[in-house]
Amino acid sequence: MQIELSHDHQEFLEHLVSEGRYPSINQAMIDAINLLERREALRLEVQKGVDDADAGRLRPVDEVISEIRARHELGE
Questions:
Q1: Which InterPro entries does the protein's record reference (predicted)?
Q2: Is the Cα dihedral 40, 42, 48, 50 positive or negative?
Q3: Spatial distance between the Cα atoms of 54 and 22, rounded to a whole number of angstroms
């Protein structure tokens, strides 16, 4: 696969490599794609929540907070 980058993006990636943040431009691009995948997964989860809310599938906040506290063994 061949990807064309803008001059600014190319310089940004080269800067990350020269600063030692990434061993190569390829590795920086892989990290960028991984971040994009996580962002898309989060977007889908948020959309599920919106769809549930639109359908009236809601839970009281106190119930959700209690569940989170129990799951993470946090006291009141």
A1: ParD_sf
A2: negative
A3: 43
Q: Which amino acid is at 73?
A: E
Structural domain count, the chain: 1
pTM (2 d.p.)? 0.70
Tens digit of pLDDT for each residue in 7-41?
A: 999 999 999 999 999 999 999 999 999 999 999 99
For residue 16, give its domain range. Answer: 7-71
Whole-number Å distance between alpha carbons of 4 and 25: 13
- At residue 35's C-alpha, the angle toward residues 22 and 39, to 5°, is 165
CB 17 within 8 A of CB 28: yes
